[in-house]
Amino acid sequence: MTLIRGREKGPTLTLAAGIREGGFSAAASLLQLRREIMPEKLKGNLIIIPDADVQRYSGRSSQSDNIRMSHLSDAFPGSAKGTAAELIADFISTAVFDATDVFLELNGCDSGSDPIAFMCYYDNAEFMQQTMLAYRLSEASGLGTILSHPYPLSSGEPSKCAVKQAVRLGIPSLSMTLGGYEKQGSSSQPSAEEALYRIMAELEIYNNGTTKPSRAKKFRYNRKACIKVPFQGIFCSSIKPGDKIKESQKIGNLTDIFGNRKKTLRAPESGTVLYKTDADAVNADETVICIGYRIQ
């Protein structure tokens, strides 16, 4: 974790990666940002956590993504007397969030999914001012797809993920998913660093002198539908992340190991494919496609 203090006073923006699986590209983006930031131009503070869950590197090979040694992605709010993941979550929930004015989590694409780049925030009626700031920062990021969720937690329910915990504490919070383009290094979409610089410029805490407001077309959704398979099999689909689909449209088939078709999968809503599994062999109850859609 790195704390960068600005020359002038201002808000504290916390940037974190590695809380969920597949955070390697997100961690690389934050490390690059950390190298580029000049404290003398910063108005406020930056807390940068390039990789919150370093245990996930243990056992990782070139043929597979990480072997989960802990479950930081669902450990929040954590415990001072719990597992390693709960200790990390407790530190973030207390020491880090106590000093945070705005929180942004970066999620990379792991070996099992292929997402498009999109911004996500929770529409929490209890903290409307914070929700409006999260919306404004999402718009400023320059990413073409923005997803808002209703805040789903009751008062006694554990938050599990970092963004939900931050929202519960009244902190304006965002989640940025890096698209598969971050692996290839080219896209018409802005890079993670460009999106972060735009967000910092909108907060008026940092301007690198080259970042300009984005005028890219936006697709805005307020719900998502996750399509899960009912049994183990082989998932076959020509649908790609970013595709626009219609309700009831065929999005793939589930076959047995001999290629016999067992089930046709159809879209429950009209919207945009946010991410799709890269896996062919899938297990029962596994999410294979996620669709962003909008209700009035």
From TrEMBL:
Gene3D superfamilies xref list: Zn peptidases
Domain of life of the native organism: Bacteria
Alphabetical list of InterPro entries matching this protein: N-alpha-Ac-DABA_deacetylase
Name assigned to this protein: Succinylglutamate desuccinylase / Aspartoacylase family protein
Species per Swiss-Prot/TrEMBL record: Flavobacterium sp. CFS9
